[in-house]
Amino acid sequence: MEVILKQDVKNLGDKDDVVNVKPGYGRNFLIPKGYAILATESARKVLAENIKQAQFKQEKIRKDADAVAAKLEGVKLTIGAKAGETGKIFGAINTIQVADALKKEGFEVDRRRITFDQEPKFLGEYVANINLHKEVKVQVPFEVVAE
């Protein structure tokens, strides 16, 4: 079953993508929640027209994301956390703390766009993956230190 996504769906696709999904997932989840519509011929024509009109706007957003990515290249964050004698953090570092650290450096990044390869649960150095745009991704190193 082919559907057109009306918004970004994690692990499936971005807005205005035409994706192939199992019929039950499309009928029972994506369409009732408003995340997608059926990819009929008329819906595809409307999608093509919308994409054509939004091309200029998307190019500007991509250029802005490239500029932010270029500035983020040299940034290294330090995040303080309470830790035990063995270096294990009480709790874990999450995306909210990384977003706050980026905000202190002067970058406004939505926490939902930040992911980790390895969950920071010990003191040390880690990498945060920031998805600024579907084509622009940047990795920001950060160090977790004891407070």
Describe it.
37% of the residues lie in helices and 27% in strands. It has helices at 23-33, 41-72, 95-105; strands at residues 2-5, 18-20, 36-38, 77-81, 114-116, 124-133, 136-146. The protein folds into 2 domains: 2-64, Ribosomal protein L9, N-terminal domain (Ribosomal Protein L9, domain 1); 70-146, Ribosomal protein L9, C-terminal domain (Ribosomal Protein L9, domain 2, Roll), CATH 3.10.430. The strands form 2 sheets. A 4-stranded mixed β-sheet has the order 4-7-6-5. Strands 2-1-3 form a 3-stranded antiparallel β-sheet, with helices on both faces. The chain is α+β, with helices and mostly antiparallel strands and 147 residues long. The longest helix has 32 residues, at 41-72.
Topology (SSEs and partners):
Elements: E1 2-5, E2 18-20, H1 23-33, E3 36-38, H2 41-72, E4 77-81, H3 95-105, E5 114-116, E6 124-133, E7 136-146
Parallel strand pairs: 4-7
Antiparallel strand pairs: 1-2, 1-3, 5-6, 6-7
Approximately what portion of the residues adopt beta-strand conformation?
25-35%
Helix content: 25-40%
CATH-assigned fold name of the largest domain: Ribosomal Protein L9, domain 2
Report the uncertain regions.
none
**Backbone shape:** elongated
